Amino acid sequence: xxxxxxxxxxxxxxxxxxxxxxxxxxxxxxxxxxxxxxxxxxxxxxxxxxxxxxxxxxxxxxxxxxxxxxxxxxxxxxxxxxxxxxxxxxxxxxxxxxxxxxxxxxxxxxxxxxxxxxxxxxxxxxxxxxxxxxxxxxxxxxxxxxxxxxxxxxxxxxxxxxxxxxxxxxxxxxxxxxxxxxxxxxxxxxxxxxxxxxxxxxxxxxxxxxxxxxxxxxxxxxxxxxxxxxxxxxxxxxxxxxxxxxxxxxxxxxxxxxxxxxxxxxxxxxxxxxxxxxxxxxxxxxxxxxxxxxxxxxxxxxxxxxxxxxxxxxxxxxxxxxxxxxxxxxxxxxxxxxxxxxxxxxxxxxxxxxxxxxxxxxxxxxxxxxxxxxxxxxxxxxxxxxxxxxxxxxxxxxxxxxxxxxxxxxxxxxxxxxxxxxxxxxxxxxxxxxxxxxxxxxxxxxxxxxxxxxxxxxxxxxxxxxxxxxxxxxxxxxxxxxxxxxxxxxxxxxxxxxxxxxxxxxxxxxxxxxxxx
Length: 517
Ligand code: B12
Ligand code: SF4
Known about the structure:
The chain is an alpha/beta fold and 517 residues long. It has two domains: 2-153, Rossmann fold (3-Layer(aba) Sandwich), CATH 3.40.50.280; 183-411, Aldolase class I (TIM Barrel, Alpha-Beta Barrel). It has 19 helices and 17 strands. It has helices at 18-29, 49-59, 73-86, 97-101, 103-108, 124-132, 176-181, 202-213, 229-243, 261-274, 290-299, 312-318, 325-337, 355-368, 385-392, 414-435, 437-452, 455-458, 461-480, and strands spanning 2-8, 33-39, 63-67, 92-95, 114-116, 143-147, 150-153, 185-188, 191-192, 225-226, 249-252, 279-282, 301-308, 342-348, 372-377, 485-487, 496-500. It starts with a strand and ends in a 17-residue tail after the last strand. Bound molecules: cobalamin (B12) and iron/sulfur cluster.
């Protein structure tokens, strides 16, 4: 059968979804013809329904399979009825994170015929073959459907064993443009799941969904799984053979790479033997000691850590993070002792957060002195416990969002709303005032002036220009005096900062001269 896969990646980092790519390969290996449509303004097709429909019609599919998350639900809702009109005979199948968490809502959408809940590895090709042969598909585990006036909802299929995971598809997915735009960073996934239960993350929801929807209570396969190392290294080798020096580093896209310590140590050992390329990974701070830090260092790891807040109340009580300040400090100290670059993720605008708690986040970040920081604005994803809390406490404005860099979608008083907006641009300065006496002297007056601005003055292009030019002038001055400070090398990414220490950082774009981008 001819299968059109569609990945919704609009107005987000231009990257192909790993799940869609491996499904493309599974289908083509099973003898189906596959086309992958990457909806993204920079590397694929932008959201022009007529062009999308033309492109799909040209491929003449027997099935259209769409993959999307919550942030693209409005696009899916807008596109599907039009697609249905143009291709009345072709069935539509939905899958991915959002259809898994909200199957009832997705099944109701105008134009949806089938959906799949959960991980479909090893099951999609059979579904497609049965459709092609006109056989019944209404009893296949994990698949839901509504056809000819009938609706069916099957229990989830057991979680797949991913030790021998299908490799991504380099033939049907054009990775070249996104590889270039992502500065040579190639994403691979080494496992699935996370053992933690943060209130804002889909992991605990997904794990609970599996428990309640699997007939055997979800016991057949653990939720947290890692791939076999040979399987993973083989895929990485394939990527390097195809793209050679265009690949500057791998990014291990897993939510939490090190929940299985033995696996992690073996990965570091094996990776260091085979590859001479840095890689980034999301690291859990629990259990980071000298042995692990040394192994990460030897294998070229650049670690990313979800610190989120400097306030213990926000991090543990509101966000449900399982670790305290001391554990974070210990982990980062061990990583630094072994020269492993660290990026910390911070989040502001959390429910019930106060001005002092926001400031404490930057005080804590300055104490941690990570190589880099990234700031996100809190967004409650539908279905998570914190979303339920936001609804219960009437905290939501109803504004839609597209990515974590958007403005807050929570209701705030005018003063807090303005502060959160300011923090988004000023966070390098906010860290710098706490970083050292020298830095505080330089950044304190600038920050004081910016924080005191009324909204009318803040929201002007003149103020934006002033922030940019002051940042550039100051970072040049402090570099000359060899004073450590955080700086932001690219205006289009105000969420990212790097620590200037006089030594090369070795992360993409971090070693540019100020003003070079
Ligand atoms: C890597 C990653 C990214 C990468 C790459 C894009 C991507 N999603 O692959 C980047 C950094 C670009 C990214 C960006 C964003 N992400 Co992201 N991302 C992930 C992450 C960590 C891994 C995804 C992955 O590769 N999983 C492994 C593959 C094998 O699994 P899979 O993608 O789920 O696919 C399987 C099934 O879902 C299913 N399936 C998938 N598609 C389809 C289609 C059909 C037809 C069928 C039948 C089945 C099916 O089968 C696949 C194989 O079993 C997930 C968390 C997670 N663990 O899943 C978050 C996650 C998907 N991201 C999330 C979010 C919120 C975002 C952003 C909105 C963040 C932002 N910038 O503001 C953007 C949106 C990106 C976009 N849609 O364009 C949320 C989504 C929540 C939701 N309910 O929608 C997640 C779940 C994380 C979270 N914190 O909750 N992301
Ligand atoms: S540690 Fe990260 S991946 Fe794990 S539950 Fe918390 S936010 Fe999600």
